[in-house]
Amino acid sequence: MVVHRPADQTADLAVTELWAKEIHRVARDGDWLLTRSYYVMGDVIATATIGEDLSHASIYDATHDTVIESVGSGVREIPLAELVSRNHYVIVVRPTGMTAADEAEAVNRARSKLGAPFDISGMFGIDTPEKFYCSELVYWASQTEARSGRHERIITPPDLMKYGEVIYWSGKRTDPQVIEIATARAAHTTRTETAATR
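Below the sequence we write its predicted structure tokens.
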């Protein structure tokens, strides 16, 4: 693996909880979550693509605190915390030129493809209608081509950064400062909850 998790599992969990809360606070419907995973395929994608060291893209549903993504098993919807837990860092990008209605529509478009197969050939520029790889799903759901007037034969997670503004960057899961903040907040939450039960 090119990137590694913290050895301390308590700290690792605290970072996941911190990031999930922060993203839920700042992100809104239709925002894109660009991430760097711990999977070998993540290493391959991050190494093979130009730009930011990213391996995955998904779209956020703020109302339900879920993400819609395309993985090897196809398009699915999972809790935000589940996505966050498997990644070394998370970047939230707000796509340009979208109204609140456009953002809600992007989430609905992505959700309409739940269960669609993963588009492995699309990652090599061979488009297969009704199949999606991760960044292709995000690009399509947000109608990015129509908004930008640019056609992308292959769209990678780093490519998506051209079409929006970064509104959140988590820092790396192993950054000492990130771990310190996460564990301090987790300890504070525990103390508060304990005091409330007395």
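The first strand starts at residue 32 and ends at 37.
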